[in-house]
Amino acid sequence: MAFRFLLSPPTLPLGSPTATATATVASYLIPAGHGRRPRRPLEHGCRCGRPPETALRGSSRGRDSYDDEEAAPRPLVIDGSRESSSDRQTGSAATRHQVTLKEGDTSNADHEGYQNRQCSADGFSKSRSKSGYFKAFGVDLSPDNVAVAIVYFVQGVLGLSRLAVSFYLKDDLHLGPAETAVISGFSALPWLVKPLYGFISDSIPLFGYRRRSYLFLSGLLGALSWSLMATIVDDKYSAALSIILGSLAVAVSDVVVDSMVVERARGESQSTSGSLQSLCWGSSAFGGVVSAYFSGSFVDTYGVRFVFGVTALLPLMTSTVAVLVNEDRLTLEERSFSLSVSSSELIERSKQRIMQIWNSVKQPSIFLPTLFIFLWQATPQSDSAMFFFTTNKLGFSPEFLGRVTLVTSVASLLGIGLYNSFLKEVPLRKIFLVTTVLGSALGMTQVLLVTGLNRKLGISDEWFSIGDSLIITVLGQASFMPVLVLAAKLCPPGVEATLFATLMSISNAGSVAGGLVGAGLTQFLGVTRDNFENLALLIAICNLTSLLPLPLLGLLPDESPTDSAQTKND
């Protein structure tokens, strides 16, 4: 691909990957990748597969403390009837998280009531439902659902700052490609420990709330980080800190809204759950696509500080909608009891969870595929060097780069469609082999742009970049979907959510490692903001090294995702 912009804010990625391997695009999560494959944080569920389900009603008071296992991206089962894995829509583009409802979670009467309330997900309905709310995508627009949708929209629209950050580091702070690559890698760190945030919010209620308070504070933290970028930040260290704080704010809000969604999904029909997913995913995608173009034109017209200032207002929407969350405030006695239990059991629960994860990960059937995923993600990247080349050498304007971002956002959707339509029944080994080889070969087309051969072929730099980015992003998104499928199917019963989040963290760690290795190569080859003599060599090395994990394909199960799921179910 031609390039992937730096610091694509952390996706809605890997915003959270789902067990059924769906992906989101253009979110404030770091996967808005324009490379051989999406490389940014995936998260608990990575958000490369967005929205989770939310419920249409329900209070959180009196509920059990949110548990990772309840948040596991698992198939929805109503009244204890297990859905055959072969019947699942693995990889549905609208699916982000799928939740299992255990036996007894809903009564027959409730289930019948939900079935009678099912509605089509064909868009916005002007008629009111029996609950008295308007509908969108077949979902009641209750305060809870509106709050969840707005949080996802904010995560998508925060991509507005993506290009501004890249140009700020390059033009205002005068950093080189290697330094910007390092900052980009460190910005992903908050996404490596997402399960910790959920554990903290469950154990330590603030101001009487486990959800509202953390959602409110995450919005304030995000607004603070971008306000600092818009005003007083003037060196690389403070810039890196502010960017990491912004990334942390999104990661925390993502965990909180996921927990809300899981709690309120109990008792809902599968049709309603799917409609809710469409509403949330559509909100995130809409925010991302809208911000894609303006991310460049605003930088061109008003400058990066203005963009940071506008971006600082967006997280306040998250804080504002926190009041819509249907959560009863804990009494003083309940808060005291919760804190006393937390302090006495926190260490013990942590030890138990760590042992659960370790006992699962050390199994060869899980460890070996996880090792492959890490190595596959850890190959070096040349993204930052290409960004400097396209802006400093080719003179691409922020507005044009915003157009390319828009194209690649749409291309990500096409990649999801490609996987869902043609690849989800293909064995994992074959998908990884074909997409990796094709991705490496197509990635070498960057050399044509660097050497100017595209102009000799009669193709302008602009059109070559757009076409190259479009093709590579489609392939990259399609090739990344099997990672989510593989991670989901590796998780044994009982530790699904925790282990899935751990596997996504390992994958994200591989991406960070790849970025840092790429930064080292960039520095070693002498590629700077003005010297691109060895850029073609850097591109060749990065693309060829992506082939190195292929001899380890034998570590992967040799079956299709559907076959794997059926085997696990049997």
Automatic annotation (TrEMBL):
This is Biopterin transport-related protein BT1. The keyword Transmembrane helix applies. One of its GO terms (cellular component) is membrane. CDD domains: MFS_FBT. Its main location: membrane. Belongs to the major facilitator superfamily. Folate-biopterin transporter (TC 2.A.71) family. It is a multi-pass membrane protein. Residues 87-98 have a biased composition (Polar residues). Gene3D superfamilies: MFS general substrate transporter like domains (1.20.1250.20). Residues 32-98 are annotated as: Disordered. Keywords: Membrane, Transmembrane, Transmembrane helix, Transport. It holds the Pfam family BT1. InterPro entries: BT1, FBT, MFS_trans_sf. The lineage of its organism: Eukaryota, Viridiplantae, Streptophyta, Embryophyta, Tracheophyta. The keyword Membrane applies. It is found in: Membrane. The chain crosses the membrane at residues 214-233, 239-257, 302-325, 361-380, 400-419, 431-451, 499-523, 535-556.
